[in-house]
């Protein structure tokens, strides 16, 4: 009766709209949002997604025997939002003894949504050496751009560490405690490292699998989607594909 009374009068069309809005709100509150309406709303708000799976396999060419690796996925937060997963972590300590390779097999599982491909994610690593007393000392920093081609990629991250002054190197040799970075953000910013004196360290081996979704709506095409092999090898210089 209230709805019938509402549509009476001169402004029939406006009141009909008001009645429809009232009825729709009431039905949603009682029965929930219809599936077709939820799907339409989700499709309108859908953003391209990137799912990064893989593992920090291990490291080689480091002279120390007890090693651990801290890693983080760095993306431009103005365009990239973390949906699920952890974008940083740390491996266990490996005592490789006389072996050349330190095996970690530490999993990586990160899911992003993005509004632009600008600021594509990078993987930054820090390798630390541990002595018999449990004290950690930096052994190397490194970073690599996450490959842009969907598929499986085997990536080698070349590492380095600050060389330090003569006094700092002498102190490190006598007492330990090698110079380390105060701001680790420069690991992913190559421009900031131009005047930094460094020494080459070992290699961190990473296996990454890249899954992408929704980029076709933005007219973005990736290498490796047209039947070509989506896998590839990348080094510390950058990605295994382009978009």
From TrEMBL:
User: InterPro entries in the record, alphabetically?
Assistant: C2_B9-type_dom
Which key words tag this protein in UniProt?
Answer: Cell projection, Cilium biogenesis/degradation, Cytoplasm, Cytoskeleton
**Per its UniProt record, what Pfam families does this chain match?**
B9-C2
Q: Source organism's superkingdom?
A: Eukaryota
Cellular location of this protein? Cytoplasm, Cytoskeleton, Cilium basal body
Recorded GO cellular component terms are:
MKS complex
Q: What is its main location?
A: cytoplasm
Q: Name one GO biological process term.
A: cilium assembly
Fetch the PANTHER family from UniProt.
B9 DOMAIN-CONTAINING, B9 DOMAIN-CONTAINING PROTEIN 2
Q: What is this protein called?
A: B9 domain-containing protein 2
Q: What species was this sequence derived from?
A: Bicosoecida sp. CB-2014
Q: What broad taxonomic lineage does this protein's source fall under? A: Eukaryota, Sar, Stramenopiles, Bigyra, Opalozoa
